[in-house]
Every structure is written in C-alpha cells, then in structure tokens.
Fold each of these.
Amino acid sequence: MAKVINPLLSGSASGQLGRMMTFDKRGFVRQYVVPSNPKTVNQMAVRDRLGDVQRELKRLGAVLRVELKTQFGYRWNSMIVGELTANDGAGLDAYVTAWNAFTTEQKGDWATADGATGLVVADGALLYACAKAVYDMGIRLGATLSLTAPAAGNSSTVGAEWTANS
C-alpha cells in the first residue's frame, strides 16, 4: 500500500501502488518488478567473492577507515569493492596472482595477519588484495593514507595498520 502525502504528483509518496509502480524514500518512482533470485552457479560465485571482500573491509580499523572516508568520501567502500570486482573480478584476480608468487612462508605470514575467513579467496590473499587495492587507489587518486605498500615481506606491518583503532 502506497503512502501518499499531498496530491500524488506534487507531494511525496513511498511504498507500492498495486503491482504497477513503486515509490522509494528518495522520491523516485519505477515500475514494479517481481524480484528474482535464480541462484545460478555463476551468481553464487560472484556473491561469494563480494562477501569475501566485504568481510575483509569490515575488519578495517578506525584509523584507516577515517582516512578512507576523508580521502575518498562516503562511497569509499564501493570504490574499493569496484576496484576489486570490476571486469569480472580482474583486479582481485591480479592481486591474488601476485600473492601466489610469494613463498610458502610469506603466504603463511599473510594468512596469520588476516583475521577474515574467505569462502573463495585464500586467507592472506584476501588481506593482501584489499590492502594493495586501497594502497594503489590512494596513489592513483593522490590520497594520503597511513597504509604501507603491501609486499611479500611486510604482512605483519600491513595487518597491524589495517586493523589499527587508535
């Protein structure tokens, strides 16, 4: 049931009008579409990768989070996710490929520094990929961030900076 305030075309509305149109809280109106969720294999793979990235971004500490909000604006999270998942995840794949070139000991160090558990992306590779994406975006956009450039041998430094709260 739609809630209409004032005359329909001059006021505001929210909700659904039958199965014809839907009003949102921002004042936009669109045609009603029956939601679908086919849960195909490809769709679930994309969702799992997005979930992995979001789990890593949730671990972000207060210090870096404030820097990202200040430097990139309120859409900082979307920028990072977009950086990693654009072009069918090409960015994430490139960072994971770079991580795969590390030695077994270095991979273990990155996995130890990574507190998030990935469904698709290996532990350690996920922290490296997200930190490297943030660092590369900062360089490209001229932002000043307190994040050290992620490399094979500095997992503990980057991990501590990633989760720092003060």
Note: The first strand starts at residue 3 and ends at 5.
Amino acid sequence: MIVDDTLTAQCLQRLVEPEFPSTGIVADAEVLLKAVTASQPDLILLESAMSGLNGLDAIGRLREVSPATKVLVVTMNDEPEYVSATLRAGASGYVLKWCAVSELVTAIRGILNGLSYMTPPLAERMAPTITNCKGRLRGKSLTLRQREVLQLIAQGRTAKEIANSLGLSVKTAVFHKMSIMDKLGLRTTADLTRYALDHGLLSSREESGLHLPSIKLRLASNNR
C-alpha cells in the first residue's frame, strides 16, 4: 500500500506494480488506519510529510492496528535526526524519493524478507547519529532549537503552545520533541522534564517560567 497525497503516489504505483501487483493507494490520512486495518498489507510505502499526517505517530499507530505490516518511508527528508526517530518509531526502511527504481525494488524485497534498508549515502551520514543514540547524550549535545523546545516542555507547554511560542508549526514542534527523545534515549514527557532539571537546562525559575510545585504534581501524576 502506498500512502501519499500527491501525484508521486501514482508514479510509485506504476513503478512497482510490475514487480508487486495489487499495490493500492491511500491519499487521505483520515482513512489510513481504517484502510490498513481492513486490508492488512504486507508493506506500506509511507510519505511522512503528507497533509494531516504526523509520520512518526502514524508509524506507531500503523504497527498497532497491523503488527505484521512493514513500513518503508519514502520521502525527501534526509535530516539524520528525523531518520533516526522514524526508525525508532518502527519503520523497517528509509529511502529518498530521488533513488533509482531498482533501489526501491531492492528495498521492498529486502524488507519483505525480514531485512531493513536505508539509502546508502544516507546510511553513511547516519552512522555517527546511530552511534550516539546508543546512550544518553549530555544536554550540551542538543541544538539550540532543541534546548528551547526542551525548556518549554519542562514548563508543561503543549505542542501547540510550543509551536506558537517559537513560530513553528505544530508538526515541527512534535518532530523536535521526538528528536530530543531519540537523541537522549528518553520515552516520556516526565523523563524530559527530569532531564532538563537534572542537567541544569532550567537555570532559574524566572528565566524558564518554571513553577516547581506544578512540575512536581505533573511528575507525580505521570508516575501513577
């Protein structure tokens, strides 16, 4: 199944059908989960940037409704941190849209046979990132934007509030949060808050806008 809301979906369908017949297209993010639940496809070619779709969240939801379905991300986004977050979310492969048809077919075949795949040039660039993600990194390893996002998360801000504060889209704010979790090896908002406090990323109550009593209540609630 190809998940894309652009003309690229039809192009991909024509390219892969000779090798993989019965390839369908879903161009509406709202009906995606229903379509996957009903058809249980072997493999999904996912464009993570389609409108109305958060690619990272979508991968997790897709794996929930159809655990046996593999996900191959086909996109133009070659940012290493996003690639790493995508793989951690459960994708089996990642190829860029400018890849050759033969490479796409190779990736599909490999994933269907239980392997993983990443566009070779991207895999070379990803090597340091993959190594770093094996353990938690210090706060100074975060980019300036990631530090800003982390500070706002620790203040209890929602993704929408973070987006408004930093002039970002909500999707970008969520992406930064996922990237931070991936880089630090953390899983929850409470973990991020503890990390910010433990590593001195919130230097003072006035500078960060942090209200310690509310944060303590948040942590206690999340630990129940």
Note: Residues 2-132 form a domain with the Rossmann fold fold (CATH 3.40.50.2300).
Amino acid sequence: MIRRGEVYWVRIGKKETEGQEIKKTRPAVVITNNEQNAKSKVIIIAPLSTSVHKIYAYQVPIWFDGKHQKVKCEQIKTISIKRLGENPQKLGNLSEEDMFKIGQIIKKVLALD
C-alpha cells in the first residue's frame, strides 16, 4: 500500500503540461492520507527538486537521499497511481517533522489558515 510520506519516482508527464508545470519523471512525496491511499486509484503528490539555490516561502527544504532538496508545495498534483509505474520504486520516507512542515505550507498555499 502507498502511504503518506513515502517518496516515489513519478511520471508527471510532458504532453499535458504548460508553462512552469513540471514536465518530467521526478521524485515526489505522497501527501494524501492513508485511508484515501488504501481506497482510491488516485493520490496527491508534491514533487521534489534538488535545485535549492532559491527556496521560496511555499517550498520546504529537506534532507533526502543524501542531499539537500526541496518539496515544491506550490506544484501539488492529483495523479493516477499508474503514474508510479507497474512496479513502483519507493525511494524512502520523509520524517514526520518534514511532513508536518509540508502540511503547514500547503495550508498557506491553499489559504486554509
């Protein structure tokens, strides 16, 4: 089962993207709750980036896979679990502390405060 906080390679796509939308396969963290993850064929993800020379207020700096990265909370996306591939490649888990920070920033991005 796919779980909140897990990081997978995700085929985000090229054809259906425009402008500054992410256009390639990249690591992304699952941000949907585990109940939905167990019952649904779609999940919500936030992509990761190793481009950390600028980190904006709507991004979360993390240490993952041995390097500084950021979670791009402004690029959250609902995807089919098929975008993880036939054999999803789990890269690891983010800490509860990182997931809390991501949740706080997503609340700001979506104006839920």
Note: Residues 96-109 form the longest helix (14 residues).
Amino acid sequence: MRTLLRDSVKFLLFEVGAGYYAKKLASGPEADLRRQFAEFLAPAPGARVLDVGCGPGHLARDLARRGCRVTATDRAVRLLGIARRLARKERLAICFRRVPGRRQPFPDCAFDLVVATTVLYWVERPEAVLREMVRVARPGATVATLDPHASISAAGMRAYCSRRSLSRKDTEKLMAWARASKSSSCRDEAGLRRFLLDAGLQSLVLERRMDGMVWFARGRAPERR
C-alpha cells in the first residue's frame, strides 16, 4: 500500500509539473549530460531504439537526429503531449506511446537499443522495469541507463556547480535533482553491477560522470534459450 502511494505521488509530480520539467531539462548541464549519454550509446544509424520513461523526449529527439528509428514511452499524458509537439516542430518521426504500467507493449527482441534516463533510480519497482527493457531487446542489443550514483548529495552538487561557475539557475536545477535523488534508489558500483547482472545483462560498461555523481551504464542483452 505504501509503495502504491509513493508511486502515485511520483506520477502526479510529473503530470502536474510537466511544463516545468520539460523546460528544466531542455538546456544547461542536464541537457549537456544527455548529449554525452547519446554519444556513450553510440547508436548505429537505422537502429531500432526504445526510450523508456522518455519524459519530454529530449533524448528521443537526439537519437532520432542521429538517424535512429525511435519509439518512446511514458505514463505521463502531459509529458507525452509536450514530447510530441517538440518532435513535430523538428519534423522528427518518433513513435510516442503512453504506457501506464511497467509492461512494455512490444514483442520480445524488438529493439537494437533500449535506454532509460533518470528512470530506474526513481521508480518503485526498478527490477521489473529493467526486466522489461531486457525482454524487448534483441540478443546482443544494448540496454543502457543514466542514473545518479549513491554518492550524490546537495553538498557535493553545490561544490560541483561552484567549481564550474554555473549560473544560479543551473545550480538550482542541479540542487533540486540532488535533493530528490537522496530519497530514491541510487547505487554504488557493487550495487549497480549486481542490479544489471541479475537482469541478465552481460559485458557491462560503467562510467561515472559529473564528478562521479552520475552513472552511465550499458550492457548486452543475453541470448534467448
């Protein structure tokens, strides 16, 4: 019951604050981080990509510009509306679908690349979400995540912003992310490796960004038996 309540509150936060969230991620260090993540993914042109929990679709649009065939899902109606408008504005052919639960409405082995940015640390049942990501990835496909590291903190983020002379606006955005992260499922290296390996992923690559406070992670989907 408590898990269901927390999940409902998180859903409402994104539904009510969709406009703020979309604008927050559109520029500044968070936008830079997602561009770096897209480069970390190194998708091949024409790759079939699924972006799980796409939000306003900033990463989905980046991948579409790189020549990928992108499908993007989220449960927030207002965020998907923003994502569709932004994609239409750029004339990008992205398939956006609302998925209210954890089950992705796609067959097994449907995608060459499956990604989730700042999703798995936030949701109440991350193992179930990751299992779905692996299920819809073809054998050998890349499954990748971007999430905060367990070391993230308000003090650490403030120091990071100060060292880089970030604007007050950008500092406030990153501080808000750091505070929200402390009540979520952030992992250290051992925890992240165990989490990804338990889902069946192989050949893991883990990189820490933003002075170690953020994880870029990817692995290969296993062969089907």
Note: The first strand starts at residue 48 and ends at 52.
